[in-house]
């Protein structure tokens, strides 16, 4: 694809939600104008499974989005100065396909679910619409969101706008790709082992994994304490805005908690000034993760920028191994997610992607002979070690991914070779070990924000995770807004212009 000349249309495609809202209020821009620029960008760079391109959407909802944008135009035109307007009024938002929209398909990429239709809005969809958001498209994921790449027989290969040979990550890869390509202002995501943070890291965007239950979901799998839905955005401030809309107790999910939109996350955004006085733990490897040299360099760059702005950086050690963390997570999956997937896809196994069959088998094998109480003990040990490492600190800083990139269509059924910081290469049995994200689903009461920290030699962005103490959401947004101001990133992916 030929690069696009920079101009007003591209500037609109990459506008942030806060700026869009200010311009809507001033009358300098209307929601319909922004939506048309967004739809034009989709037409230009998205393509589809057959014709190439980024392929970030399962469907584009142009007609309903135009209707919602016109209603938002009217609302802004009728508003008097000082009127309280819904926080997302007129903002184009892409939702992950698993976040059901009443009356529309809900298949999660599975042949077993072909023809299924959502009978109600997912809670996050309900809240976005109530906040005035304009849902203009639904984004791709791997089958049942069970991979860290985004491709499936049903929806094809989703590609990274920064390097079209690379994946945008998974499972919320369509969300990350749509944001990075200027095809959405905000997006929804979900996370059970890194599925929000991994695509955020690989696409130069921001992804937030809230503490378990903070953002409501759909029973019965919402009871899985590794899970969580969340926001993705191009800025920390926008991620905070969408998180506040999505969060809080909801009648559909009795495990959800807290107030909605209390302003705490927005109030925590202090830019570089927020670094002053922060005690930041730094771990480049979370134990023995092999981490590519370029990822180490960019993570250190972020840490040194915080230090120069007044943070106290403390190197911390964790007694973890990738093998142990993988086993802990897959034992858990073997008791909940794996059996649920096997039950759902029974009779259609031959139509499943290889990675889905592998996930179900790995989960079953890991949990064989390991009771649920034993699984809880494995979780508790990881949680205790994290608590000890973070004692006396405000946040922990660590890479999001260990590798520079994964192939867009890769299955990695034989594991993955990862370059380490000493120049050696280590083979990991499972490609999920190439991401430093799952420990914080094992310890899922902690908030984690992934923010961009640089670009690797492969052209794919590098992300860093900011981990807070349980339920201490404001701390990660404070640190994240500081990194966002202190560490510069290219404004647009070079691969698509």
From TrEMBL:
UniProt xrefs under SUPFAM superfamilies: Amidase signature (AS) enzymes (SSF75304)
One Pfam family hit: Amidase
Domain Amidase: 33-476
Membership in a protein family: Belongs to the amidase family.
Matching PANTHER family: GLUTAMYL-TRNA(GLN) AMIDOTRANSFERASE SUBUNIT A, MITOCHONDRIAL (PTHR11895:SF7), TRANSAMIDASE (PTHR11895)
Protein name (database record): Amidase
Organism: Leucobacter alluvii
